[in-house]
Design goal:
Layout: H1 9-20, H2 25-32, H3 36-45, E1 54-57, E2 60-63, H4 74-85, H5 91-95, H6 105-108
Antiparallel strand pairs: 1-2
Length: about 110
């Protein structure tokens, strides 16, 4: 069994950059020189929501080579903006994570896809 090697900042940055470009785990592994399972484990350990221009990993912030992020289509931008304009009707609904108005199963029951 091979010893575990720590990820360098450059390897982490490169792995995320390639992932955002749409590369698969085996393709990233071939580029970096690690196994596909190592790539998958490392990418799963990243807290994507906490640092949009970098990422938290091993208690350090790693600056990204490409900070543009994954491409977002127009419909995704419209949906994001529409959801951002909505708010929970009560503090309790927000605290307990109730769906936003129009997004619960009951609200969508009469809608057609």
């Amino acid at each position: 069994m091979m010893p575990k090697l720590r990820w360098t900042d450059q390897e982490s940055s490169r792995a995320v950059h390639l992932y955002w470009k749409g590369k698969t785990h085996p393709e990233i592994a071939a580029d970096i020189g690690r196994t596909a399972s190592s790539i998958a484990s490392h990418l799963e350990s990243i807290d994507w929501g906490r640092a949009p221009r970098g990422f938290i990993g091993q208690e350090r912030v790693i600056k990204m080579a490409d900070t543009s992020g994954p491409p977002i289509s127009e419909w995704q931008q419209r949906d994001r903006d529409r959801r951002a304009a909505l708010s929970h009707p009560t503090f309790t609904a927000a605290f307990f994570g109730d769906p936003l108005p129009g997004y619960s199963a009951l609200d969508r029951r009469g809608q057609t896809a």
